[in-house]
Design the sequence.
C-alpha cells in the first residue's frame, strides 16, 4: 500500500475532525507507548525461544533401561488476542497515569 501526500493529508484532517486538535498529542503519545510495549513484549517472546539450551551427546551411552520421561510444565501460551488486550490495558493505565500527572 503506497500512500501519497493527498491521502496522508486527508487522514490527518479526518483525525483532527474526529479527536480535535487538543487531544491529538495525547493520542499520539498513547499510540507510541502502546507500540513500544508491543515491540518489547514480542522481542521477549522471541528471546525466550532462543534461550532454550540444546543438548548434544557426543558418544552413545551403554545400554540401560530408559528413564521415564520427565514432565516439564509448559509455559502458558498466550494468544495474540490476549496479548493485544493486555497491551490495551497497559496503555489505558499509562494514559490514566499521564492524566493524573497533569492534574494540579
Sequence:
Amino acid at each position: 500500500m503506497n500512500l501519497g501526500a493527498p491521502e496522508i493529508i486527508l487522514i490527518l484532517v479526518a483525525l483532527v475532525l474526529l479527536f480535535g486538535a487538543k487531544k491529538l498529542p495525547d493520542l499520539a503519545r498513547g499510540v507510541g507507548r502502546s507500540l513500544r510495549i508491543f515491540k518489547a513484549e514480542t522481542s521477549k517472546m522471541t528471546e525466550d525461544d532462543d534461550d532454550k539450551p540444546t543438548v548434544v551427546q557426543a558418544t552413545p551411552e551403554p545400554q540401560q533401561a530408559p528413564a521415564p520421561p520427565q514432565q516439564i510444565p509448559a509455559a502458558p501460551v498466550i494468544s495474540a488476542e490476549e496479548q493485544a488486550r493486555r497491551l490495551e490495558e497497559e496503555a489505558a493505565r499509562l494514559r490514566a497515569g499521564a492524566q493524573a500527572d497533569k492534574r494540579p
About this structure: Helices lie at 5-19, 24-50, 80-102. The chain has a mean pLDDT of 76.
